[in-house]
Design a protein that fits this description.
Shape of chain A: globular
Largest sheet of chain A: 5 strands, parallel
Largest interface: A-B, 53 and 26 residues
Oligomer: heterodimer
Order of helices and strands of chain B: EH
Order of helices and strands of chain A: EHEHEEHEHEEHEHEH
Largest sheet of chain B: none
Strand content of chain B: 15-25%
Shape of chain B: flat
Distance between the termini of chain A: 7 Å
Radius of gyration of chain B: 13 Å
Structural class of chain A: alpha/beta
Number of helices of chain A: 7
Number of helices of chain B: 1
Radius of gyration of chain A: 16 Å
Chain lengths: ~220, ~30
Amino acid sequence: VSRLSVFVLDDYEAMSRAAADLVCDLVREVPSASMVLATGETPMGLYRELVHRRAAGAFDASSLRTYQLDEYAGVAPSDPRSLFGWMTRSVLEPLGIPPEHVVRLPGGGAPDGALFAYDRELEERGGFDLAVLGIGENGHLGFNEPPSDAGSATSEVELSPETLRANKRYWGDGAPVPNRAITTGMKSLLASRRILLLASGSRKREIVAARCTAP
Amino acid sequence: VTAELPASHLQRAEDVTVMLDRDAWGAELSG
């Protein structure tokens, strides 16, 4: 890594505000930035902070281009458990990001050509300016599960037992978590001009210490 | 195999900013 910065903030709210500062600075510099945005509990504080700043006239997301990081296979966007639905409710609509600036992943069972086209479109536009990522307790990024290839393309993957267990709380009522998903590949994520990795809570302590804070 | 953890590949990225809360960091902070 050419540049690694580690910030330890007092609590979740402070971390979310610091992350929002970074995003706002970047968008001031590049209003039409391309961003891939994670769902999950960890980045929601950042998104809420951005929504507040937009309401206060301090943040304009109308020129941003956003990409979907990952999605369960076979789950319709209208399903409340769809990651795209979650992103729409928590980020895209409240930030006023125009639908034509939102790039969705192909659905489960999509032909390889559709997945390839996603990576190609991204590459032709110069890649991500920013990737906002969380980290799984098993070290996953997006739904790129271990073992991982740094050059992996956007693809449909099988989720690990650890991820299925960790995500069970989002499904409730004993409904099984889909065991397949689509994820933006490691190649595109690692090629981002900047990566913002957020981690909160003691459950992430071990993986953060092992993988994220040493150059 | 830790070398195969996706997070391990962050070493290859150009510019990585990690933001943590104290619970995720775990160690006592000094200064």
